[in-house]
Amino acid sequence: MHTSPIISLENISKTYVNGTIALQDLNLEITPATLVSLVGPSGCGKSTVLRLIAGLGNMKTGAIAWNHTHNQHRLAYVFQEAALLPWATVLDNVWLPLKLAKLPKRQALVAASEAIAQVGLTGFEHCYPRELSGGMKMRVSIARVVTQPDILLMDEPFGALDEITRSKLNTDILNLQHQMQLTIIFVTHSVYEAVYLPSSHNGSASWSSDRRYCH
């Protein structure tokens, strides 16, 4: 059965003010609840695609069309750095976007706690970013954005991590996508990562818990 795309990029071209051509005549369709990887060398326009989908920039030509059944699409963006508030605990960092969305406090705290559990960080709710490893910080960043969206934009989020942690998080993100039926667009420089994630996204996995606890 053919599934209508949730996002269609039609003849997209983007040129920066310094004359750099980032994209030219790009056409791409993304169907709901799929994981799509964008792979290529630095400067080929991968991150530009994410920013345009997020509405963070203007195109020279072309259009981005959304499926009419997804007019209320909810986007979340995971950047290369976790960008957590250093003075806030894990729970407070995850709670922040829900608080800004004016969700009732009790409902927001339940949603934040569930998101923390989904990324395998139960027991770390009252830890601060300085007490977490790089991989754990990225998990908090992911928990913070998956409390509401159905479309997740990920701009090489694991690029700065060691290979073992990166491999674990790749498996973890597959499980999250499977559980929540998210549409994920994932930017990477890694050919292995670009092939592994989309080819495995229908499988199931489990978040691996870190047994170290902060004080």
Quick take:
The chain has 215 residues and is α/β, with parallel strands linked by helices.
Q: Distance between the terminal alpha carbons, to the nearest Å?
A: 52 Å
Return the domain count: 1
**Content-based structural category:** alpha/beta
CATH topology: Rossmann fold
Mean pLDDT: 83
Helical fraction equals 25-40%
Shape: globular
Q: What is the level-2 CATH architecture name?
A: 3-Layer(aba) Sandwich
Low-pLDDT stretches: 202-215
> Biggest sheet: strands side by side, in what order?
3-7-6-5
Give an overview of the whole structure.
The structure is a single chain. With 215 residues, this protein is α/β, with parallel strands linked by helices. The protein has one domain (7-200): P-loop containing nucleotide triphosphate hydrolases (Rossmann fold, 3-Layer(aba) Sandwich). Helix content is 34%, strand content 21%. The chain contains six helices and seven strands; from the N terminus they run E-E-E-H-E-E-H-H-H-E-H-E-H. The strands form two sheets. Strands 3-7-6-5 form a four-stranded parallel beta sheet, with helices on both faces. Helix 2 (90-100) crosses helix 3 (105-118) and helix 2 (90-100) packs parallel to helix 4 (134-145).
